[in-house]
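Fig. S4 source data, part A: sequence.
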Amino acid sequence: MLYYLTVTFYVLVCLLLLVVVLLQQGKGGDIAAAFGGASSQTAFGARAGATVLTRATTILGALFMIGALTLTIIGRTGGGSVVGGISAPAPVEGAAPALPTTPLPSGTTPDTTGTGSGSGSTTPPPATPPASGGSGSGSTPPPANPPAGSGSGS
């Protein structure tokens, strides 16, 4: 109820500020006085006395700013997450199963070969030798054309 009352007051202040600003008489040409367009000694024209419209503009401008801050404070919601109402995504079919969280009995090692023997042996599976590429080191052969700028220059 307080929020709607404040919004109504704020809209009324906005409309009154609009009307008061539009009713004021323009001071056209005063900035030109700074460049010799008039005989005024001030940059923005001679200072006139405060009229009812200028005082109303000042008061309504202050009410406008205070109303904006008040509506911001009243209208804010409690802290929460942007994704607070979204549920977790469904698991993907065919995904890798989760790792077991139970500890293994003492003296056994996990089965890394994929055979599923579960024998509990502590010996690693046999290693396969790397394929020989003819050079004996197992590395790729050097490129046929060396990069520009390397080598000897003649």
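Fig. S4 source data, part B ends here. Helices lie at 2-23, 52-75.
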